[in-house]
Amino acid sequence: MCEKENNNNDIEIKVLNEEEMENNQENNSIDNKAIQNESTEESTSLRAENNYLEQLQRLRAEFANYKKRLERERYELSDYLKSELVSTLLPILDDLERLLYHSNSDQIIYEPNEPVLGIQLIYQNLLEILKKEGLKPIESIGQKFNPTVHEALLIDPSSNGEYEIVAEEWRKGYFFKGRLLRPAQVKVAKIENAVEN
After folding, report:
1. SS3 helix, strand, coil % of the chain, rounded to 5?
2. Domain 137-197: CATH superfamily, name plus number
3. Using one digit for the tens of pLDDT, what is the confidence trace for 106-118?
């Protein structure tokens, strides 16, 4: 009888073990599903974070580019406005040059004229200020004629053997920060019987 009871106990233990195994498997599958749900939520959360991070990085790059473009446009506008101001001052500079040229050509034999010296100082100061801002005169006399920086008002045949050389400058030309602001008006010397290509 003892053996029967042991067998029955063994069977009960086996049945209990099988039930426990089934319960464990169910619990494990529930745990696995929970883990999968958690990992899915984590991966979704991680993807969302990465997406936000990428958007933030793009916005930072766009803002940096915007700042650079704005700064560049500000400098370009500043240079444009300066060039406009300098352009309006050039006729005054021309008038001062003509006044000084004519006062020197009509040399007064006696003492130097003080107003002329004052005008010369004003001219030099104005020219220095404009040079500091970026104005540069075009050197013309004795140079080869260049249609990009010279405006030929007169072509004079010359017998000195020079072909297309600037003989006289009637109005100075200027560059402003490397750009042509105004071409020089010049007289060009040419050989009479030169063969042009």
Report:
1. 65, 20, 20
2. Head domain of nucleotide exchange factor GrpE (2.30.22.10)
3. 555 445 567 778 8
